[in-house]
């Protein structure tokens, strides 16, 4: 059966994003090149025909071009490199394209230079990211931008979509920040969906107006209203995740929706919606979903919803 092999080749990175789930101890762990090739070979033998090379930051690995060549030789039809884009110089992009990369994912976090540099905690990083983004767009390969939804970014999301569209990016994925591992204690970074979704819906409308393929991850369809068709659950596909620590199906990841609450029963999306992430339920309970379904909440929040 076809599917995606998602290879997290290592946790180290050339940035230190303030919401990153990777801990300092995790940054020390990585897969050796031989182990990566072995995983790619195993994936092909089991029918996986698409490959994602991610991290951490995969472009800091000197053997990245060689890994892409190995993936192409093994017969992967689609080879993606997920990056923050800082090392996507014109020459590096050309090498990756020649090696066999078919798509680039660039995490922009947020589009404003000062806010971006503060978030990634590296002065001058925004200029490198933006030039890297321009270089992958110019390469002719498919480009996807990943934008993070967190307390200090969601209000800027509509403006970010305008910024992205102006750079001729065809596809955008909206990621909702997670309270796991290195970000577990930064509860203030996770906004209530009731506050963030109106800005997300503005962004979705702008994306449609610009002809963008724009997808929302992690927000249940019932909260998106008429924009529910933009909801996307990558775990609904066959995706195997390989990390330096473990191998698992994406549907079982803590970063994926896992819990349907009582209000989900009878919802028209019940059969296709994975539910809510455990970290979100622990923080805010099920009041928002229950309200959307005109039902009383049953799962209490750890703290009251904040208006920020």
From TrEMBL:
Molecular function GO terms recorded: catalytic activity; iron-sulfur cluster binding; metal ion binding
CC cofactor: [4Fe-4S] cluster
Protein name per Swiss-Prot or TrEMBL: Cyclic pyranopterin monophosphate synthase 1
Keywords: Iron, Iron-sulfur, Metal-binding, S-adenosyl-L-methionine
Record carries keyword Nucleus: no
PROSITE patterns given in the database record: RADICAL_SAM (PS51918)
Sections of the chain in a coiled coil: none
Cross-referenced Pfam families: Radical_SAM (PF04055)
Location of the Radical SAM core domain: 1-209
InterPro entries associated with the record: Aldolase_TIM (IPR013785), Elp3/MiaA/NifB-like_rSAM (IPR006638), Radical_SAM_PqqE_MftC-like (IPR050377), rSAM (IPR007197), rSAM_sf (IPR058240)
Highest taxon above the source species: Bacteria
């Amino acid at each position: 059966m076809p599917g995606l092999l998602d290879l997290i080749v290592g946790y180290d990175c050339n940035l230190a994003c303030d919401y990153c789930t990777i801990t300092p101890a995790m940054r020390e762990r990585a897969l050796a090149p031989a182990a990566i090739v072995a995983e790619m070979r195993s994936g092909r033998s089991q029918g996986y025909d698409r490959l994602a090379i991610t991290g951490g930051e995969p472009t800091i690995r000197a053997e990245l071009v060689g890994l892409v060549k190995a993936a192409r030789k093994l017969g992967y039809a689609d080879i993606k490199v997920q990056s923050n884009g800082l090392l996507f110089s014109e020459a590096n992009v050309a090498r990756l394209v020649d090696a066999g990369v078919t798509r680039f994912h660039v995490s922009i976090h947020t589009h404003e230079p000062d806010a971006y540099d503060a978030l990634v905690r590296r002065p001058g990083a925004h200029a490198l990211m933006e030039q890297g983004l321009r270089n992958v767009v110019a390469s002719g390969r498919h480009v996807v931008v990943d934008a993070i939804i967190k307390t200090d970014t969601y209000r800027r999301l509509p403006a970010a979509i305008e910024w992205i569209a102006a750079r001729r990016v065809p596809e955008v994925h909206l990621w909702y920040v997670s309270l796991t591992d290195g970000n577990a204690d930064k509860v203030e970074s996770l906004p209530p969906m009731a506050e963030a979704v109106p800005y997300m819906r503005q962004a979705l409308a702008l994306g449609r107006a610009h002809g963008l393929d724009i997808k929302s991850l992690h927000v249940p369809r019932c909260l998106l209203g008429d924009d529910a068709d933009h909801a996307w659950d990558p775990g609904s596909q066959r995706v195997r995740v390989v990390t330096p620590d473990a191998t698992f199906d994406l549907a079982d990841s803590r970063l994926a929706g896992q819990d349907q609450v009582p209000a989900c029963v009878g919802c028209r999306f019940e059969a296709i919606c994975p539910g809510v992430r455990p970290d979100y339920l622990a923080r805010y309970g099920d009041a928002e979903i229950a309200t959307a379904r005109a039902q009383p909440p049953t799962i209490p929040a750890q703290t009251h919803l904040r208006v920020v």
